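Journal club prep, notes for RB
We'll compare a predicted complex against what the paper describes. Inputs for the calcium ion case:
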Amino acid sequence: MRHLTAFCFTSLLCLLHGAPAASFRLEMIYDHGSTINDGISPDNLCDVNGTLYFSASDGTSAGDHGDELWRSNGTSVGTYLVKDISPGTSSSSPNDLVALNGKLIFSAVVGTDRELYLHDPTLGTTSVLLDIRPGASAGNPANMTTIGNAVYFRATDGTYGQELWKTDGTAAGTLMVKDVIPGATGSDPTHFYGYGSYVYFLGGGSSNSEMWRTDGTTAGTALFKDINPTGNSGASYF
Ligand SMILES: [Ca+2]
Ligand SMILES: [Ca+2]
Ligand SMILES: [Ca+2]
């Protein structure tokens, strides 16, 4: 059993199946290869209405797909590659997977262009939600956090630097909330946390990193507390 457990964690995708009296059964549901180093290394796990989405690599040899978006319903037959976003052995390296109203939002990279993606399980589609930084340059969306009916994150459109963005899962509803530091310098918001009617986060940029909050509007985004008036408080992990 110890051998099986170690093998599972290093080489296979495993799920814990619930059983009465708080006991669990560890079961192998997917086996990509016969050697212990031939694992798919699932990461970035995210539950969307009972389906587990994750990033994994089936290898980089001819016929493999690299690190791409996978899904599992807890069965072997229901565990498979969702889409080879970066075609062939190159990796799209899906990251920051979050669920929003039954859909999956994440970032992926093709070439050097990491952008915001949407997977719709109902339609079976996986595509760029918005090319935040138009063209081949990367918008680099990151720190995606679902709060209510929106996902908050940071990104750059190439003009305003890394600033606060949000999306409702539509292209039209994906927008920069506020250019906190006017112009090309980014305020680099992180650590989004919903509380009451607001989203609290660490923002303000590298020279004045403090506790901010937003109600999702430009006018409603402001410094909440200047904890260290002479420097960075670095307020985080709310
Ligand atoms: Ca690929
Ligand atoms: Ca782009
Ligand atoms: Ca800016």
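Talking point for the session: The chain has one helix and 18 strands.
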